[in-house]
Amino acid sequence: MLHVENLTASIGDTSILKGLNLDVGAGEIHAIMGPNGSGKSTLAHALAGRDGYEIGGTVTLDGVDLLEMVPEDRAAAGVFMGFQYPVEIPGVNNMYFLRTALNSVRRARGDEQIGASDFLKGAQDAMDLVEMNHDFLYRSVNAGFSGGEKKRNEILQMAVMQPKLAVLDETDSGLDIDALRVVAAGVNSLRGPDRSMIVITHYQRLLDYIKPDFVHVLVDGKIVKSGDHTLALHLEDHGYADFVNHDLDDAPLTGAPA
Amino acid sequence: MNQAALAFRSAALEQMASLTLPTKRDEAWRYAPHKALGQLTFGPATATDAVLGDIDSQIPHIDGPRIVIVNGVVDSAQSQLDTLPAGVKLVSLAGMPADLVESALDRQHDTIDDAFSIINRAYGEGGALLMVDGRPAETIHIVDIAVPDVSQNASASRVVIAMEAESSATVVETRIGHSDAFGGSNVRTEISLAADASLEHMILQDLPTTQIHLGRVDVMQEAGSTLRARLFNLGSDYGRVAYHVHLDGEGAHADLSGLYFGFGTQTLDQQITVVHSAKNCTSRQSYRGVLDDSSTGIWNGGVDVRPGADGTDSEQSNDNLLLSRKAEVNTMPRLEILADEVSCQHGATVGQLDDAALYYLRSRGIPNEEASRLLINGFADQMMDDLESDAIRSWITERLGHDDA
Ligand SMILES: Nc1ncnc2c1ncn2[C@@H]1O[C@H](COP(=O)(O)OP(=O)(O)OP(=O)(O)O)[C@@H](O)[C@H]1O
Ligand SMILES: [Mg+2]
User: Fold this and answer.
1) Rounded to two decimals, what is the model's pTM?
2) Which terminus of chain B faces fewer neighbouring Cβ atoms within 10 Å, N or C?
3) Which ligand approaches the C-alpha of residue B355 most closely?
4) What is the pLDDT of residues A185-199, one digit of tens each?
């Protein structure tokens, strides 16, 4: 489904992603872990299409080149990114935003527009999924939301958008224990044979709830180790020391499973 | 015309003889188009022959009393003055009964110094007089229409609003123009609020962009009174509204806010002065501007705290969104404090569309242009958050070219 080959990203003279390879098959969940500043969010933004980076390499989704597309076209192609830091947009009503988003991708795909009342029903179901009070629909997007509420709002958006590929950047950070369970349940219910997910996290605990098919370790702009969910347990016990102490440029490293 | 009115008028006409128009050196007129101002021609109010057609499509649909003033002359056919709510007098200034003259003239508002206020005194004999002694539920609508004529291209008119003690009312002044010819209007509003009176006053300025609007609002507030003044400054090539609010009685409160939204080569100018003369008064100024194309916004907001006005509490904010490299805004908070235990805060911002927010919206599939519009409207709509009238809200959103959520 998602094919990433030799992806590089830099800003000015700073190179952040340094030749990253990753293949995510349909229905798979891949977890990405790695130290602060290693480039996890940059990878997410490179997939979602934020400008400001110089990008090299190849990224395709079901064979379609994503790198040439603007963010809205990537969304229409089925990419959804859950932001590590969701943006507050005062004055823009959450429901209006969600409906505009859904209808925009539907228009881009040639699907019919969804009317306000049908949309409301769907949105309320999605809110129940993440146990979010319906009042949040009538507030401004993320404005004044607590950290945890913002993260729930991201999952709500994912549930409404029904993407092909979801990239969730630290959706678990800032969540209390109950919220973590709720968000994980929301993610699991959206799991399906046609939906792939990349879950970026610092905590093995999330992976107890959302069991990944693969775990990758991202260090200094590259994936330096890939494995199954037991790799996360190893990291929990030993940290990243095993990976960052190597001379990364010379060490023979396993890439992502092809 | 009766004696008092005549004396008043002739004094102003005398001043006219030595009239000098404001220049760039006058701080309050610094960004005005001085050349165009000099081309405005005024004269005594005269009914126009122009056929106005359907004015309802240009103004909000507000149920309730309405007075329509065309070139300073009340148009009874377009007005709705038959069934006024209890405690409301709404009449034409020109034909008003003698006992009301006293209320309408010589209101001891601060000395008139600028040329256009003098012109308004000299020629603005027509307009509306509203006296409220009660708490009418209906919104009172005052519509001013400028129709450039061959003999004089600009109109002068006045609105006088007197709120008796403990009265309360909502008044909307919609100001529009007819035809695309050069011209404009010069409207002065004088408001007095007796003790504990409360007034919600709104100006919707939407003259054609070929015209000029010069508005001035003078307010005198007695103890415990509340003013809520809102401005939607949208039309005109040069659209100006100046507020002079005097908090004369203890515990008076003035809450002024507004939105200016400029396109093309528009210049939208708000000049605000709130004078705290009594103890424990509060004032708020909260204005937002959106400037596109080569438009210019001006916000000159002042608070004067006079000696003895201890316990003053004031806040000012002015936030601007520039949508184009050629757009410009000049924001000037002014503060003069001559009293004790005073809390005065002010802040001003000028920014562009937030890139992070734009990206966030686009990442959800919303195309760039629509995402920008959403952000702009979101910024502007916050000035309507506590607007109760749906009619006015929808007029504004329609006027700004967006549908509401
Ligand atoms: N706009 C930018 N300009 C310069 N450097 C940047 C910019 N954005 C990111 N970086 C740098 O790129 C590196 C990777 O950042 P990124 O946000 O992708 O890290 P991360 O792995 O998500 O970290 P964390 O775990 O803390 O979220 C960091 O060193 C960061 O400082
Ligand atoms: Mg990150």
Assistant:
1) 0.88
2) N
3) 1
4) 989 999 999 999 999
